[in-house]
Amino acid sequence: MAKRPGAGGIILLAVVLGLVTAYLIWAKFREMDKDKEANWKPVVVALVDIEARQKVTEDKIELVKTPPTHHVPGVLTNRADAVGRLARTRIQARDQVRDTDVVKEGEVPGLSFSIPPGHRAIAIAVDEVKGAGNTIQPGDHVDILTTYTDPILKQEVTKIILQNIKILAVDKGRTDPNTGAGATTSITMALRPEDTELVKAAERAGVLQVALRPVEPEPASDTAGVRISDILPGLRAVEPATPGPGDGRATPVIISPPARAPRAEIKIYRATTETVVPSSQ
Fold it and tell me: Which of 72, 105, 159, 211 could form a disulfide bond with 143, CB atoms 3.0-4.6 angstroms apart?
């Protein structure tokens, strides 16, 4: 038979459990003591939403006393450490400002920090015309147009393929909108993965151009596109018909000139020879 623990073992176990309980109670009271208002420390908190690359000013932040247990890692405790710097990413109102949330003015943060979740950065070439007259800056929003030859209609078509696209950088990765002119060689945009495929396919098929949008938000425009025959009706050679069942595509109808009426003829028979001559009518 197994020996039952003696009184000494029971006493030792009780002592260990008592020590563990005492430690847990001490730790709990210590934690509660930290949360006493007398032990609260000030941290920098955003008063309003601060957008990425926007300068942090005095009126955008405040010092708020909070329990040490509520401090996020790396939180700033001095206003001077935040004022005058640029937000690396968007800081929401009432969020604590961390040292990783801001960068010194002139210090260019990595572009990957500016890409919205679920998007990718992709660049296209521009010039003064394609880039809206060198006016596009980081942070602007644009529409993307393409001009291509429709393989069914055999006509040039211009169509807006994407709207309200955010510009992350211009030219050689410049992300600061306060320095230099607008885009002259390239623009880098934030697109959903499927839209990156659309843009690159459109770039191969035709010519891309961007249109600068206003600062105030506007709803998307539903446009049908413009064909060359819409501006030069005399060149219309093919017209789309009602889509066939199930194919979802317009069936081209070739417009041909009317057939000529047959000319009157006179047949003359001489013995076994037949001669056909046109009528004078």
Answer: 211
